[in-house]
Design goal:
Length: 453
């Protein structure tokens, strides 16, 4: 063996048990009660610690052109931060340029990622914006290349029409791919935004007011109805509201493959953050909602209605957030989170809100299964040795100073966590330990995926 992690408590998606774990050539090669007799190059003692699969953040925006700028973490900075928070795979939402084939989007973003040097493995989803001239037919080429998940936005300048969304769902069914959706009602948001602006109501609080609770739930219901009519699977990103939770629960109960993701910011903050002096820093879409929605999300998280937790990591610099100090329409939408996601969810597990296996389901096993990452997401023989050693006794307070993103502030400033990752391994290589990034640019590789049986 190259590495044996001894005496730790192994956490899988179903159980926690004491065992040793052996790694050979970047893969998990053995899990057994006692590997102390097995020859190996390096032994690590994990007594008193948990040994978990590295997390998969299925929703990030790296070097993302958006809101009049580009998100401030490129593929290196974003994946460095990920590694330091125990996340060993990130998915990027790469946007199709007008007139571009979906395979060309993939190749353009792959080249950009490779030039920036990702520190952990990454996968790509493609945000579909232009169906003209037969471009939707290029989905098959992207799927054959190993990118089998796509996204449509129901909001923003690059939103697709209802008819286009329906065609995307049809094509996904033909190609064996999965459609993700940002569900909010664009027309109602535009109307309310114009009305608020006419009344001079433009402080960050009105970002929330312009997107009342129902605009996300209503859009989710429509998207689910179309997916159901085609029996096509659908993945709802960044679910934030009670009505959306109810729509997903109903569709699941009826037996449809409707998946839902939420993000730590919706579990932790409510819309009250937009009233803070630095409320602009929290502006993201959909916005954080009221307490009833947060309570519904927690029930869904515990009860199996939510499938994944991801971050929607899309950081902007303070100077860019400041553009909208007096006018929420000018604030680039998005916040950082990739380094905090796994520590936040594991800290919740450590305090008994959910079990550790449930945390592994949400942050590793389920995203791997849903998005066809067969080599990732579990501690099992043959899987990539993406491993986190977690110290449940280490208290940690998040601060801009101890994060590893290229952005210059964090909405998580002051967050107190109970338990924290001690070490992170990416394919058997140590990339983080006790506050220090130990990886290297370019170690991360593009994951080719398939959802075909
Ligand atoms: O505010 C957000 N979420 N920014 C990133 C783009 C998106 O909607 O996911
Ligand atoms: Zn979105
Ligand atoms: Zn997003």
């Amino acid at each position: 063996m190259d590495l044996i992690i001894q005496n730790g408590a192994i956490v899988t998606e179903t159980q926690v048990f004491q065992a040793d774990l052996g790694v050979k050539e970047g893969k998990i090669a053995a899990i057994a009660a006692d590997l102390s007799h097995v020859p190996c190059a390096q032994r690590v003692d994990a007594s008193g610690k948990l040994v978990l699969p590295g997390a998969i953040d299925a929703h990030t925006h790296l070097a993302f052109p958006f809101g009049g700028t580009v998100s401030s973490d490129d593929f290196f900075a974003g994946t460095r931060a990920a590694a330091c928070g125990g996340t060993t795979t990130v998915f990027d939402y790469s946007g199709q340029n007008p007139g571009e084939s979906l395979l060309d989007t993939v190749k353009r973003r792959e080249a950009q990622a490779e030039s920036q040097g990702p520190a952990v493995d990454y996968a790509l989803h493609v945000g579909i914006t232009d169906l003209s001239g037969g471009l939707l037919d290029t989905m098959e080429e992207a799927v054959d290349y190993g990118v089998c998940s796509f996204k449509v936005y129901m909001v923003y300048d690059f939103a697709v029409s209802d008819g286009a969304f329906y065609q995307v769902l049809q094509k996904a069914q033909q190609t064996g791919s999965l459609i993700c959706v940002h569900a909010e009602n664009k027309e109602i948001i535009s109307t309310l935004t114009a009305q608020l602006a006419a009344q001079g109501k433009l402080s960050p609080w009105y970002h929330y007011v312009s997107r009342p609770e129902f605009v996300a739930g209503e859009a989710a219901r429509r998207a689910i109805a179309w997916a159901k009519s085609l029996n096509a699977p659908l993945y709802i990103v960044h679910l934030s509201d009670q009505e959306g939770v109810e729509a997903v629960a109903q569709a699941k109960a009826q037996g449809y493959a409707i998946y839902a993701e939420t993000c730590p910011q919706y579990l932790h903050f409510t819309c009250d953050v937009f009233k803070r002096e630095n409320g602009r820093n929290f502006v993201c879409s959909p916005p954080m909602k009221g307490q009833a929605s947060q309570d519904a999300l927690w029930r869904a998280l515990k009860g199996g209605i939510l499938d994944t937790v991801a971050t929607d990591h899309c950081p902007f610099l303070q100077s860019e957030k400041d553009w909208g100090k007096e006018d929420f329409r000018k604030i680039p939408n998005g916040c950082s989170g990739v380094e905090v996601m796994y520590p936040y969810i594991l800290s919740q597990a450590n305090q008994g809100m959910i079990t550790f296996p449930r945390a592994v389901q949400l942050c590793a096993a389920n995203p791997a299964r849903i998005f066809g990452c067969s080599s990732k997401g579990s501690l099992a023989v043959g899987k990539d040795a993406d491993i986190v050693i977690y110290d449940p006794r280490k208290d940690f307070t998040v601060s801009q100073n101890n994060m590893h993103s290229d952005t210059d502030h964090t909405i998580w400033e002051g967050l107190r966590l109970h338990g924290y990752p001690h070490s992170t391994y990416s394919r058997g290589r140590l990339v983080y330990q006790e506050g220090r990034f130990l990886g290297q640019p370019g170690w991360g590789k593009l994951l080719k995926r398939s959802l075909k049986p």
